[in-house]
Amino acid sequence: MAIPIPSRQLFINGDWAEPLLKKRIPIINPTTEEIIGDIPAATAEDVDVAVQAARSALTRNKGKDWAFASGAVRAKYLRAIAAKIKERKPVLAKLETVDCGKPLSESEADMDDVVGCFEYYADLAEGLDAKQKAPISLPMKTFKSYVIKEPIGVVALIVPWNYPLLMATWKVAPALAAGCAAILKPSELASATCLELGEVCREVDLPAGVLNILPGLGPEAGASLASHPHVDKISFTGSTVTAVKIMTAAAQRVKPVTLELGGKGPIVVFEDVDIDKAVEWTIFGCFYTNGQICSATSRLIVHESIAAEFLDRLVKWSENIKISDPLEEGCKLGPIVSRGQYEKVMNFISNAKSEGATILYGGNRPKLWFGRCCGIEGSRKM
Ligand SMILES: NC(=O)c1ccc[n+]([C@@H]2O[C@H](COP(=O)([O-])OP(=O)(O)OC[C@H]3O[C@@H](n4cnc5c(N)ncnc54)[C@H](O)[C@@H]3O)[C@@H](O)[C@H]2O)c1
Ligand SMILES: NCCCC=O
């Protein structure tokens, strides 16, 4: 099924802008490994322009257009964005799937979450108005104290590829609800749906500069944002290695950061469980999002009295997972997002083997045409 891939530029100051150095990055469909389009690649030069646009958005009309508008005004935009995304769900879900490889049913669920998230923060933005200037009682009558909630300023939002539009929304929606102006830096591996958010912002007439979208390489666009003197805060989701770089850059200006990173998620199975249920949840935890989820149950600790039976059923379940083109009905496992990630996974398998692990199922490409998929169950005897 051919999906039209929109050709977009950077989204800066409410409009599309060609990257100043005219750089672009190919979009590779991980299922077919074909180049199906390209995305603009921002560099430090574009980051400067976008940061300036965001600062102007905060101060325009003395802040009354955005930063110091009522929460109800901002909520109106958030709801309008949610409505447009709901309208476009079928197209956005397909675009997400061809861009990052997750099964279509999961991309559809992500789009529902995106809509829900914008609506949720619209409610919170409205709720802010009643909380403004809440008095705080003090023992001394000569002083008055109030709580005033103000946006922190310009925020840089740097996100990964496994939930491209959803991870972006988790950051964009609260930032906008609070009255910040934002610069979103999607992952170079999956930026297509984040760029469509730019088109949605245009259609709902979001004030110019309130949201800017700058795809690009991490060390170029991402690093320039992290170290920019006029970015007030950074929110990052991704790997720990990158987080260290971002935190180091932010520390030079004592800039606050919020980090959501990866880890190793163990699932612990006791001897008194319903084995089939426990197997089902282990499989879900491990293979959802093609196994590329921060909360993946990537470490399994099973009580030894049920281990043999548990592993046996785990393998049987694994054999029944439908591995296919993620656009295909019923697909449960699509391709790994990129060649780089595929190689990382294969390295994990090879390291596990050399440390004495037994591969119970998979561990190789399941079909020749299907370049990058890998299903594995392993039991480490170490
Ligand atoms: N905790 C969570 O909620 C959560 C959610 C999703 C993913 N993750 C984690 O994300 C990781 C996978 O994502 P990834 O491979 O895209 O991570 P990554 O750290 O390689 O990249 C994340 C983002 O950071 C950017 N980046 C890379 N180098 C940079 C630099 N020097 N300065 C600034 N930005 C830079 C990338 O371009 C991308 O946009 C996994 O570890 C996963 O567990 C965590
Ligand atoms: N449901 C989204 C979880 C994000 C982590 O990868």
- Summarize the main sheet: 5 strands, parallel
Structural class: alpha/beta
| CATH A-level architecture of the largest domain | 3-Layer(aba) Sandwich
Ligands present: nicotinamide-adenine-dinucleotide, the ligand NCCCC=O
Trace the largest sheet across and list its strands: 9-8-7-10-11
CATH domain class of the largest domain: Alpha Beta
What's the arrangement of secondary structure elements?
Blueprint: E1 10-12, E2 15-17, E3 24-29, E4 34-40, H1 44-59, H2 71-87, H3 89-100, H4 104-131, E5 134-136, E6 145-147, E7 154-158, H5 164-178, E8 181-185, H6 192-203, E9 211-213, H7 218-227, E10 233-237, H8 240-251, E11 257-260, E12 266-269, H9 275-287, E13 299-302, H10 307-319, H11 339-354, E14 357-362, E15 376-380
Parallel strand pairs: 7-8, 7-10, 8-9, 10-11, 12-13
Antiparallel strand pairs: 1-2, 3-4, 5-6, 14-15
The structure holds nicotinamide-adenine-dinucleotide and ligand LWGJIB7O.
Residues 158-162, 167, 185, 187-188, 218-219, 222-223, 226, 237-239, 242, 245-246, 260-262, 294 line the site of nicotinamide-adenine-dinucleotide.
Describe the 3D structure.
This protein is of the alpha/beta class and 382 residues long. It has 2 domains: 258 residues, Aldehyde Dehydrogenase, Chain A, domain 1 (3-Layer(aba) Sandwich), CATH 3.40.605; 89 residues, Aldehyde Dehydrogenase, Chain A, domain 2 (3-Layer(aba) Sandwich). Helix content is 43%, strand content 17%. The protein contains 11 helices and 15 strands. Strands 9-8-7-10-11 form a 5-stranded parallel beta sheet, sandwiched between helices. Strands 1-2 form a two-stranded antiparallel ribbon. Strands 3-4 form a two-stranded antiparallel sheet. Helix 9 packs across helix 10. About 3% of the residues have low confidence. Bound molecules: nicotinamide-adenine-dinucleotide and ligand LWGJIB7O. The site of the ligand NCCCC=O has 5 residues, from loops. One of its GO terms (molecular function) is aminobutyraldehyde dehydrogenase (NAD+) activity. Pathway: Amine and polyamine biosynthesis; betaine biosynthesis via choline pathway; betaine from betaine aldehyde: step 1/1.
